[in-house]
Amino acid sequence: MRLAVPFDHGQIYGHFGRTAQFKLYDVTDGRIVSSAIVDTMGSGHGALAGFLKAYAVDALICGGIGAGARLALAEAGIRLYPGAEGGADDAVRALLAGALHYQPDYVCGHHKDEPPRVCGSHTCSAACYHETSEERSE
């Protein structure tokens, strides 16, 4: 099994769609056998589901996440553990021990009830997310 965590200086990065790195963990027989940090290369929000799928990720532990990214992860078959905080390594060990504190229904406050957006030549669905200029300035 391969787990991923949005990563920033050893911690779970708080906004899935803006993470610059993931820490990937390979797990065999309930033990971490290897880990690596990978750069997202500018991918963001819903596009990160494809990025993680390309790395054969089975599950994601994260902090904040929007509805569109949640849908894209579900469509990619990636199990989600949102609303987690703290150290990335600690969170993975807690998940493997069956003790991870997370919030299954957690959605970022600024992503709740988002309407579809018109983006150039198409209307965005939940799986196609584009930041507004206001969100980029946060």
Which architecture per CATH? 2-Layer Sandwich
Note the overall shape: globular
Work out the helicity level: 10-25%
The DSSP helix count reads: 4
Average pLDDT number: 80
Number of self-contained structural domains:
1
CATH class: Alpha Beta
Structural class by helix and strand composition: alpha/beta
Biggest sheet character: 6 strands, mixed
Spell out the CATH superfamily.
Answer: Dinitrogenase iron-molybdenum cofactor biosynthesis domain
Distance between the termini: 35 Å
> Which spans have pLDDT < 50 for at least 5 consecutive residues?
110-138
Give the percentage of residues in beta strands: 25-35%
Q: Please give the number of β-strands.
A: 8
What is the alpha-carbon Rg in Å?
A: 15 Å
The ordered string of helix (H) and strand (E) elements is EEEEHEHEHEEH
CATH fold-level label? Nucleotidyltransferase, domain 5
Give a summary of the structure in a few sentences.
The chain has 138 residues and is α/β, with parallel strands linked by helices. The chain has helices at 47-54, 67-75, 88-96, 133-136; strands spanning 2-8, 11-12, 21-28, 31-39, 59-61, 79-81, 118-119, 122-123.
